[in-house]
Every structure is written in C-alpha cells, then in structure tokens.
Design brief:
heterodimer, A: about 375 residues, alpha+beta, Gyrase A, domain 2, globular, B: about 120 residues, OB fold (Dihydrolipoamide Acetyltransferase, E2P), 6-stranded antiparallel beta sheet, 4 helices, about 20% helix
Chain lengths: ~375, ~120
C-alpha cells in the first residue's frame, strides 16, 4: 500500500464529470457522480453504465501450456479453456482458503488475467513464483473500462460492430476509434456488458465516445457494489478471503467437474472433503423483512436466539427496492425460506434466507 | 435558524424546536434509504444518538442538539426516506423537541457561520 493514492488514466475525466473521489485500495476512484448511487444503479439495470475499473490488475501470461500450469494454483479447468473464452476462478491456498478471485481469458498466444486492485501486490508474485517457465507481465499502460447494462451492446456495438457477435464469457481483440482494445463480454453487475482494455492514451477518447451515447452514463464504485450485491456476486475481502473456502462461499459452480474429481490444486483435501460432506458454514442470501439495511458484521441469529452466522455484505438494493444482504450461516441452517433474526444496533430484526441472486442475471449466453 | 457542527438545523416554531439535517449533510449522505426516529415522549439529553439515518453508502447517527422531550416525529420520512434528499430543510424535518435548557443555542452557528464551517 503506497501513501499517495494512484490515479487511473480516466482520473481527469472523473473530476470533469463531477465524480466524488475516494481512496479505494490505494487508488483515487469515483464513488459516485452527480446522478448518485441510486440513479447510477438504475441506469445500469435499465440502460447502460460505464465504470472505470483500471485499478484492477491486468496481467499477460506467456509461455507453454499456461492453462495447465494455472491449474496448479487454481481449482478451475484452465487447461481446457478454449481460445477466445474467459472463465471466473480463484487462487486457493494450502488450507483451501481463497487468496483472490480473478478472470482468466485464453487470448490465443497468451493468457490474459484480471485480478482485484487490492490483491495485485500478492497475485503477481504468486503467479511469477508458481508458473514455471511462464512470463508474467503486469500491464501498466492500459485502462480497463466496463460498459454494463441491457443497452451495453448498443453503446459498444455502435463503435465496434464486432462485439455484437460475442457471447457471455467470450473475448476478442478489435479496434474502437482505431485503438486496439481487448473486449470481453462479461462484468460484475449481473447485467450483460463488456470489459474493455484500452491503451491508456486513448482511454479518455474511447470512454467519452461511449458516454456520448444517449443510453450511457458514468457510474462509480457505490453503484458497482450495490449491483454486484443484488446479483449475488462475492466481493473479495468482504464475502471471501483466505479463511473462507470456495465451498463455504457457494462457489461450487466455479470449479469444473474434472477438477472436483481429480483435485491437484492447493487446498484440494479440504475442498473435496467439503464437496462430499458439506461445509461447516455456507454463504447465503438474506433478505431483511424491515427497511433497515444489515451491513457487514451484523450477527445472524436463529429464532431461538442462537448465533448462527454473520452478514458479510449488505445494504440497500435499489432494484429490489429494499435492503439485501449476504452472509454465512452454520451447517444445518440456510435453506431458502428459513426465518432468522439480524441483530442491528442491538435489536433483533426479522429476515429470511433467500436464494441468490436477488435480481435475475441478464447475461447473453 | 441555527446550525450545529453535526450538520443539523434548528428552528423555533410555536414554542418547540424543530430539528432536521442540512442540505449539505443530505448531499454528503447521498440517497437516504432508511430513517429511524425516536418515540414521542422520549426524554433526551444533548448529544444522545436519537436518530439513525442510512444512505445507500453508510449509516450515521443524529444527536439530540439540546436537552428536552420529543413531542412530535416526522413519520413521513420513515415511510419515504428519499424526502430527506428532496427537501431536507423544509418538509423533511426529523423531530420536534420541547426544550428544557436552551442555553446551548447560543453556541450554535447562524447561517453565515455554518456556510463558513462547511467551506
């Protein structure tokens, strides 16, 4: 962590657009613009929103059999990831905890990896140390911009028709206003959309072109957080960390069948055991019945008054129109429909366990 | 109208003190989604945390600006918290206090002082 927060290539644009800048993981990022978190959230669900995610780490992996080598540090089937495809995954440690989550893309002559801003300093050396014969290069000269929402295809496609053909979790290289961009059809809002890696000297121009579309507005980290929470997506450091296993975090879906059976990744013992026997706790959706948001750290109790877990992410869901939360509950609890109490400011507030996500995901499969 | 460093405004009306939060505070909080008010009849002391207000961003407390008794609360902002953003210094008042000791009023800022305070 450095003392002076870093700035992305879009910093001046954020300020010009009236972004309220905050320090996030050592980066000066917009938490919201004058539209406000609620408005930006709805903009993304209803039309399209542009997010600067340049603070995330972009990494190029070059070498022989990169996908196979990644399998030694990730429980995902990256050896069989086809060219032009992207896949969500995570690094696990020997205890079966999650060191970080990431997106890996097979770009043909290399692999392209995006990791969390707060974990770049750990992930780059981790890959360099564990991927034998692989050249690990962190990219510092490209911005990363996400355009998300039902109108994202119109917004990005109006400048780059090729993106219309991409499906969810596919990636390609194409020119936008003559700038060579890596464009992947994915995101972290629950909506259709793209993440676009742009040469830093063209990032403002390309972003302005997206924002010039009548259906696209800038959105900040605040809306990004409420969007991913409603979509039931984990935030590293809140919902998942080195103490939570992927099975506890209900990320079973992100471990492919072959890897579940064969193991061969850090922490496989615990992860395979939990797959067979169930985990001691499980991440679930929790819907407070009243109006009070239940935030990170709020205790979850059974109706009998026993502590059964804790909220890890919670707040107001603008699309849901009320509070939404995720948290861990002990084995034996957590079936959708189960009634629980949340201890908010010392008072028990009724809530119900619900299936995630809170809003339907709108990916273009 | 007087202002506190906690970004509350106080206005005397029919012998009671009407309290709310300033437009500046409402703007800083962002979209308000939840308000919990004290009960009518509560006796409060200056600096008691008597209101919880939550925006999409975070939770904050509002302190009693004076000693007194809560004589009325604005249920309309509980039902529709966004009123706090729409009209913080008018319709979206929080509570009315029957004041037992008004002397701290002298320490609170006037409008010019508050403007200077928030810069």
């Amino acid at each position: 962590m450095t003392d002076t927060p870093k700035r992305t290539p879009l910093y001046d644009l954020h300020v010009e657009l009236g972004g309220k800048m905050v320090d996030f993981a050592g980066w000066e990022m917009p938490v919201q613009y004058p539209l406000g978190i609620m408005g930006e959230h709805k903009q993304c669900r209803e039309k399209a929103a542009l997010f600067d995610v340049s603070h995330m780490g972009q990494v190029i992996l070059k070498g022989e059999n990169v996908g196979e080598k990644l399998e030694a540090i990730c429980p995902q089937a990256y050896a069989t990831l086809k060219e032009g495809k992207a896949r969500y995954g995570f690094f696990t440690n020997d205890d079966g905890g999650i060191m970080d989550d990431l997106i890996v893309s097979n770009a043909g002559d290399h692999f392209f990896v995006v990791v969390n801003a707060s974990m770049r300093h750990q992930d780059i050396p981790h890959m360099a140390a564990n991927l034998d014969g692989v050249e690990v290069t962190e990219i510092f000269d490209r911005a990363l911009v996400a355009v998300q929402g039902p109108a994202a295809e119109e917004v990005v496609g109006s400048l780059c028709p090729a993106v219309r053909e991409l499906k969810f979790m596919e990636t390609t290289v194409a020119e936008i206003l003559g700038a060579e961009c890596r464009i992947s059809r994915l995101g972290y809002t629950g909506e259709d959309g793209y993440e676009i890696s742009i040469p830093e000297d063209r990032a403002v121009e390309v972003s302005r072109a997206f924002l010039a579309h009548e259906d696209c507005e800038a959105a900040g980290l605040g809306a990004r957080d409420s969007l991913r929470l409603e979509a039931g997506l984990c935030l590293y450091g809140n919902d998942i960390d080195t103490t939570t296993s992927p099975i506890e975090a209900s990320l079973n879906w992100a471990i492919q069948k072959r890897r579940k059976e064969e193991g061969g990744f850090p922490g496989a013992d615990r992860i395979q055991r939990e797959l067979a026997e169930g985990a001691a706790r499980k991440l679930v959706g929790i819907k407070p019945e009243g109006r009070a948001p239940a935030r990170h750290g709020v205790e979850v109790q059974s109706l009998e008054g026993n502590t059964i877990g804790e909220i890890t992410s919670g707040g107001f869901g603008p699309t849901v129109g009320g509070p939404v939360a995720m948290g861990y509950v002990a084995k034996g609890h957590g079936a959708p429909g189960e009634k629980v109490n949340l201890i908010i400011r010392g008072k028990a507030q009724p809530a119900e366990i619900v299936a995630l996500p809170f809003v339907q995901q709108n990916y273009k499969r | 109208m007087k202002y506190t460093e906690e970004h509350e405004w106080l206005r005397e009306e029919d012998g009671v003190m009407v309290v709310g939060i300033t437009a500046h505070a409402a703007e800083q909080l962002g979209d308000v989604v939840f308000v919990e008010l004290p009960e009518v009849g509560d006796t409060v002391s200056k600096d008691d945390e008597i209101v919880v207000i939550e925006s999409v961003k975070a939770a904050s407390d509002i302190l009693a600006p004076l000693d007194g008794e809560v004589v009325e609360v604005n249920e309309a902002i509980v039902d529709e918290p966004s009123k706090v953003n729409d009209d913080p210094e008018g319709e979206a008042w929080f509570f009315k206090l029957k004041v037992s000791d008004a002397s701290p009023m002298d320490d609170y800022m006037d409008e010019a002082g508050y403007k200077a305070f928030i810069g």
